[in-house]
Amino acid sequence: MKKIFITLGLTLLLGVTAAGSAMAYSTEGAMYYNEGLDQYSRGEYGKAIQSFKSAVAKDPDFIDAYYNMGALFEYLKSYQSAIAAYSKINQIDPNDKETVLKLAELYYKLNNYERALFYVTKIKENDDLYSRAKNLKNQIVIASQRAEAKSSLTNVNTANSVNRSIVDKFSGPTGLAIDSRGILYVASYTDNSIYKIMPNGQSQLYSKSPLLGGPIGLAFDSMDNLYVANYAKNNILKINKAGQVYTFMNNITNPYYLIIKGNNMYITEQGNNTVVRYKLY
Predict the structure, then answer these.
(1) Cβ–Cβ contacts within 10 Å for residue 126, how many?
(2) pLDDT tens for residues 187-237?
(3) Would the pLDDT of 4 be above 60?
(4) Closest CA to 132 of 156, 86, 100, 154
(5) Strands 193-197 and 203-207, bridge-based pairing
């Protein structure tokens, strides 16, 4: 595990084993790196970052320079730049779990929960950092869920405010149905009436027959005949295209909703807790 701002001695930086397994950096790269450390110690953070950049320009695999550069960017809250530095380390050494956790933390700070989860799930149970990664993962999941919920609510509120229009001339509106011309019909339970709303939004009284008694459900058949669940009078009415009203079916106790599919009518009979199917043709 790295420590932030460790001073590397030139002996370590320049040393190479006979087998070539030790990391070797150029004298110039090491010079820029140590210069960056000195500048950091004096609080000259901008200059330190430039020195670390010079170090990696001379030695593209100078992991400690990338790490210290990333740490400084993170301290300065320049998170995207920090991610760029840590990502370079991840390319060089994908098994560096400390850098993987850093990337997860930074994406979490930027509210990029998808990328944060991508990195945090790379740390497995047998890794030393698993406990920290598990806690971070829980925070990411909770934050992601909250963001999704907030986004959904915003979308709903936007739809309500932008697309909503109101027609408010009804007394106890209940069922709705649309005929083949796109005209909307509304049952008005309280005043035993049926209104229609034209495509331009204007409403008109369609029927106020004495046969109507507590209309609720409405449905059209394929020939634009309108059927009415007449709740208070326990029957189903039919209104033909000419507007004539007559009783279509009796002995339906408190009919509530109607659906017509093909040649079948389905009626919810609230008084008997049943659904009635009736063949129209």
Answers:
(1) 6
(2) 999 899 999 998 878 889 999 999 999 999 999 999 999 999 999 999 999
(3) no
(4) 100
(5) antiparallel
β-sheet with 215-220: strand ranges across: 215-220, 226-230, 235-239, 245-249
185 near 225, Cβ under 8 Å?
no
> Which residue ranges form the domains of the chain, and what is each CATH number?
10-160 (1.25.40.10), 173-279 (2.120.10.30)
The count of other CB atoms within 10 Å of the CB of residue 212 is 22
Neighbour order of strands in the sheet with 274-279? 255-261, 264-269, 274-279
Q: What's the pLDDT at 10?
A: 35
Cα–Cα nearest to 219, from 264, 173, 168: 264
pLDDT at 198: 86
pLDDT of 271: 87
Using alpha carbons, list the distances in angstroms from residue 176 to 30, 86, 200.
79, 60, 17
- pLDDT average, residue stretch 96-101: 94
CA distance 145 to 188: 42
